[in-house]
Amino acid sequence: MFGFKNYGNNDTRSGFGVGLVEAASKNKEIVALCADLTGSLKMNDFKNKYPNRFFQIGIAEANMIGIAAGMTIGKKIPYTGTFANFSTGRVYDQIRQSVAYSNKNVKICASHAGITLGEDGATHQILEDIGMMKMLPGMVVINPCDFNQTKAATIEISKYHGPVYLRFGRPKVPNFTPENQSFKIGKGIRLVEGSDVTIVCTGHLVWHAIESAVFLKNKGISAEVINIHTIKPLDEEIILKSLEKTGCVVSAEEHNTIGGLGESVASLIVKNKLAPMEFVGVNDQFGESGKPAELMKKYGLSTESIVDKCLKVLKRK
Amino acid sequence: MTSSQKLVFQIRRDIVRMVHSNNSGHPGGSLGCTEFFVVLFFEIMKRKDEFEMNGFDEDLFFLSNGHISPVFYSTLARAGYFPIKELSTFRDIDSRLQGHPTTHEGLPGVRIASGSLGQGMSVAIGAALSKKMNGEKNIIYSLHGDGELQEGQNWEAIMYAAANKVDNLICTIDNNNKQIDGDLKEVLDLGNIESKFKSFGWLTINLENGNDLSQVKQALKHAKDKCFDGKPVVVIMKTVMGNGVDYMMGTHKWHGIAPNDQELEIALNQNPETLKDY
Questions:
Q1: Which residues, at least 6 apart from A258, have a Cβ–Cβ distance to it below 8 Å?
Q2: Is B129 inside a domain boundary?
Q3: How does pLDDT run across A22-31, given as a tens digit for each residue?
Q4: Per CB distance under 8 Å, which residues of B are interface residues toward A?
Q5: What's the total number of domains in chain B?
Q6: More exposed terminus of chain B, fewer Cβ within 10 Å: N or C?
Q7: How far apart are CA A172 and CA A287, in angstroms?
Q8: In this predicted model, what pLDDT tens digit does every residue of A144-183 receive, in sequence order?
């Protein structure tokens, strides 16, 4: 596994919960707001440790976003917590006007993103959130890959002034990035060095991309794996540099291919050096109920899918 | 003539001139709330001369019904937040005086963008909570249209503020009973606004004539006295849309259209220049 080791499966939302408490211990201006999903968002530790800085808003996400925007006036750094669906689509106009256009220092923290939310089904499985958030001028969009990286991102965004969308998930997945890593907003990370094909991936698909690179290596194909935890601003340099070597790219994400990371990469490519590209993502569909692993397989968000797309794109070189 | 009366005349002139010069904007609601803005900014709020976004140790104001930006801008300029002559750039390209208020161009006095309706009360609550956390004994004021209460987010906010005893908050409702498509009752009847707020747990104050300077002052002073007592306060302020320009009064027709040259002349004749036009 190119030196990567799974330290044990863990959920990215727990990384958020731990990171939030740690960030709050260093900065007393940090406050947290939740719309009746404290347990699901792993915000209980924060709530217990800092009861005066925790705000239970109830099932009223629009009000939560507005209150968070208002709290920044007086220097608070609000972290809002609810599911990704209710963090974005439900409150798009509130985020657009009261947060993004008003340039308020609100951290919109969204759990249960994507199809791995699982059994609750399509009403809760948002696959359009990255697209909506990245279209907002000034919005930073972050989608970390595991527990450790989510924790590091949660801490780092408190030091950045401006609106941030932090996206994470529900299931326990491999935790393989360094425990106390430094997180640089907007900087991609080359996880595997390669020369035949570039895999640009984000979130839960990063581990699968590494698995794909192992599989391809055994077939004599050298894949480069780049973890793009920050979708906006996009680290253009790391992608273009890799493309100079490999000449083709596959994107992989737990999101609709329309509006996601892949689309940002495609836009980058057509503006610079044309190269064949393939997309791993949900193909303009709603999800459905099922176990997370079953759904990932059915909707083509798997190691096998990434390998297939790599083989396909290599033929187009 | 008192200084507040002078301000009312001058701000009315500013409003109709701004809207006329760009042939766009919202004069009706602006004119209806002129007395409120004058009393709030010049007689009630404890505010600092210099604008600072965080507004520590001062009272803050949020305009939720952002389309009445002409009265807001004129008040801010006349209060010294930015040069009065800048009012001439209203709704122009490259102006800080956007059609609806925004922080985006850095206009001093504006702390949040508004225009898409129904968001201001939540923001005001957030700012009020921030003041409480910071140990400041200041008050957050906000203004909302009555038609704006048709937006559901308000009721989330109204519920939250009462349940959480946000008692450093005075929301005023501009109750002119008009909205773009006609009378409130015809478009979507709100029923009894006061009893709705009361049942949600707010302290309510009725302001019978929101176009009477002394009544506005009395009501806002009363509202201030009621702060820090466990309940958010709402002032339900009856106003006449288009107040001070006879042909604009009491009709929704002038909600969002500008007067022509002749109409401007009539409006200006009814409101003497007291503090120099911009």
A1: A128, A131, A284
A2: yes
A3: 999 999 999 9
A4: 53-56, 60, 62, 102-104, 111-116, 119-131, 133-134, 136, 152-153, 156-157, 159-160, 163
A5: 1
A6: N
A7: 19
A8: 999 999 999 999 999 999 999 999 999 999 999 999 999 9
